[in-house]
């Protein structure tokens, strides 16, 4: 096979800038941008797969394939009557994820993986900001965000009490997220749509597969920065031979609006990674 192919990119970008003076005291400045981009393979030199969902042609770049999760097994009887999942690396037990047999061959294999979610690279990115001033006061805010993107929780990164990672290098993972402690499958909580499958003292390959179970909406909007300032009147500073004195208070990463609530969506699938910092500053600017 040759490493050749054809990709089509389509999209558009819009930028807006509006500025207005209201009398001698008020002024407002608004800026915004919006970008939409979509791509897809028009041709890929790939094998003749038996099923159309296995091909790359007419599908976007940066898309993931995975299994379609249909809840958790509630009993051994259900496992016995479900398509065989042992080829995923472990023998299923009650509380493990069950997957859809897409090709209807009575077993769960690589052929049952289908395109799931949006691409990992957002198809929509945007930002907008507003600056306003009234006499000596000034206020500015900037929002940024993206949409039409997906990410997948990495169970190997957040599994409690298991020594594993993506590179198969042993490391100690002793942290326990509250959502796992409060919302996992057990004999006392047999909810087949709970957040976490059954707990185990070792990695369970059946439950770490790329699937819709771990898929999350990566869209978000963030208040990236906000600043409030006050410039002292010139008549107060002229006698001290100071041309300008400004006091300000600002902050970054102050608010995030997202359907995903467990951690910051920009952290992706690793909820135990280093979080994005919220920062506050207060300052004084003096010009002589």
Low-confidence stretches: none
Helix content: under 10%
Number of DSSP-assigned strands: 13
Mean pLDDT: 91
Fraction in beta strands? 35-45%
Briefly note the structural class of the backbone: mainly beta
Tertiary shape: elongated
Structural overview:
- There is one protein chain.
- 6% of the residues lie in helices and 39% in strands.
- The model has no long low-confidence stretch (mean pLDDT 91).
- The relative contact order is 0.14.
- The protein has four helices and 13 strands.
- It has a seven-stranded antiparallel β-sheet with strand order 1-2-7-8-11-12-13, with no helix packed on it. It has a two-stranded antiparallel ribbon with strand order 3-6. A two-stranded antiparallel ribbon has the order 4-5.
- It has 288 residues and is mostly beta strands.
């Amino acid at each position: 096979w040759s490493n050749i192919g054809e990709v089509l990119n389509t999209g558009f970008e819009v930028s807006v800038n509006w500025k207005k003076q209201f009398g001698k005291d008020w002024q407002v400045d608004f800026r915004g941008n919006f970008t939409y981009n979509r791509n897809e393979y028009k041709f890929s030199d790939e094998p003749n797969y038996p099923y159309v969902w296995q091909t790359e042609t007419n599908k976007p770049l940066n898309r993931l394939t995975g299994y379609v999760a249909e809840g958790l097994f509630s009993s051994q009887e259900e496992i016995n009557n479900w398509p065989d999942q042992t080829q995923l690396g472990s023998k299923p037990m009650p509380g493990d994820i069950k997957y859809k047999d897409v090709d209807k061959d009575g077993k769960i294999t690589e052929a049952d993986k289908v395109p799931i979610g949006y691409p990992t690279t957002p198809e929509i990115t945007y930002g907008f900001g507003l600056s306003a001033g009234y006499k000596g006061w000034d206020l500015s805010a900037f929002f940024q965000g993206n949409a039409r993107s997906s990410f997948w929780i990495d169970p190997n990164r957040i599994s409690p009490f298991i020594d594993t990672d993506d590179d198969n290098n042993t490391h100690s993972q002793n942290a326990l997220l509250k959502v796992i402690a409060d919302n996992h499958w057990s004999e006392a909580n047999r909810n087949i749509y709970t957040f976490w499958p059954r707990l185990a003292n070792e990695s369970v390959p059946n439950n770490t597969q790329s699937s819709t179970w771990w898929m999350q909406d990566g869209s978000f909007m963030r208040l990236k920065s906000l600043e409030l300032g006050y410039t002292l009147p010139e008549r107060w500073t002229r006698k001290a031979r100071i041309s300008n004195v400004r006091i300000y208070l600002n902050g970054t990463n102050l608010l995030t609006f997202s359907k995903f609530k467990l951690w910051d969506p920009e952290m992706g699938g690793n909820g135990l990674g280093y979080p994005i910092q919220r920062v506050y500053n207060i300052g004084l600017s003096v010009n002589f």
